[in-house]
Amino acid sequence: MSRQGYSLGVKSVLTMIIPLKDAVSGAFATQTRKFTMPCTAKIVAVGLNVAARAGTHSTSTVDVKKTSTSLLAAVFDVAALTPGTIVSKESSSTLASAADSVAKDQVISIISTESGGTSPTWAGADLQIDYIPLGD
């Protein structure tokens, strides 16, 4: 992902990789994965990469939420992505204002939703979250 410039006061941008689907092709189905933020942080980018996709994906989406509020301005559209190409959201037009401050120990939910389609499958799906620690 290309990265916007930050002031010299920013000590580091940290990255978390959350596997959503292993390399074995499987059904794209509604599911929720959760993790806890390790520190208070500003989310500066969220990226999704899917190595392979098959079948018909009518409405296949991935959203990232804190509580019930999305960190994304718009969900990832799995049907529209090109397998093997990272789709990144890293600006104020693609990240919601909720990404500006995420509390330490905040539960983050990654929600995959499927509606319609014919035998939609995916493989090798990973979500990347880049964040700047804000101190605790």
Could you spell the SSE succession in H and E letters? Answer: EEEEEEEEEE
Give the amount of beta strand, in percent: over 45%
User: How much helix, percentage-wise, in residues?
Assistant: under 10%
User: Which outline best applies?
Assistant: elongated
If helices are DSSP runs of H or I spanning 4 or more residues, what is the number of helices? 0
- Oligomerization state of this entry? single chain
Q: Mean pLDDT score, rounded?
A: 86
Total beta strands:
10
- N-to-C CA distance: 27 Å
Give the radius of gyration: 15 Å
| Main structural class | mainly beta
What would you say this structure looks like, in words?
It is built from no helices and ten strands. 0% of the residues lie in helices and 53% in strands. The chain is mainly β. The mean pLDDT is 86.
Question: Would you kindly provide a brief summary of this structure?
Answer:
This protein is mainly beta. The chain has strands spanning 14-21, 26-27, 31-36, 41-56, 59-66, 69-70, 76-77, 87-89, 107-115, 118-133.
Feature tags:
single chain; 136 residues; mainly beta; 5-stranded antiparallel β-sheet; 10 strands; 0% helix; elongated
Layout of strands and helices, then pairs:
Blueprint: E1 14-21, E2 26-27, E3 31-36, E4 41-56, E5 59-66, E6 69-70, E7 76-77, E8 87-89, E9 107-115, E10 118-133
Antiparallel strand pairs: 1-10, 2-10, 3-9, 4-8, 4-10, 5-6, 5-7, 5-9
